[in-house]
Give the backbone structure.
Amino acid sequence: MDLFSNQIEPNQNLLPKDGVVNYFGPILNQPEADHYFHQLLDTIPWENDVLVMFGKRIETKRKVAWFGDKPFAYTYSNSTKRALYWTPELLELKQLTEKLTTTTYNSCLLNLYHSGEEGMGWHSDDEKELQPNGAIASLSFGAERQFVFKHKTTNEKVALVLDHGSLLVMKGETQNFWQHRLPPTKKVTSPRINLTFRTITTENLAE
Ligand SMILES: O=C(O)CCC(=O)C(=O)O
Ligand SMILES: [Fe+2]
């Protein structure tokens, strides 16, 4: 948290055009955010993510987990995952996020970055299973990390720092026009957990 956190304006659009990104700053106090961070770190069944790059199957160091209302199938970087049912803590966080963003979500992708050496490359969250132009709400816990948007045609960039216990929302046309990434950094040595609440279209129910 910084001295200026009381100036964070959740209604301000951080993007200059072609989408909407709102940063709410911390939405939990420090003990609450610490509680969720440790609870998620210890109890989520974290698994290595698998990417297919140049036809090769690569396991990421970053770990992931996938939860939802139903056992949705979700194909992400060529691997299909099935959603687990919400834990009580994830349901609490979903409820709080829904209240603050006045939107409902039916699933959540969780990422665990063990240190700053792990990040996520440029991408848009535009998988076919996701509701087109649906809001994506991102909760961060643990180490503060930079998050960057890049416009797909003009290359304009917008960067911000995602605080412990903070909420960020991407909505409207954001995923069509912008990519985002979590840059790796040697300056951060502690872990971070990120939760992205999403809406999956209900045709994507696993057998
Ligand atoms: O870790 C983050 O803040 C972002 C994760 C992300 O972009 C994703 O899961 O699609
Ligand atoms: Fe993303």
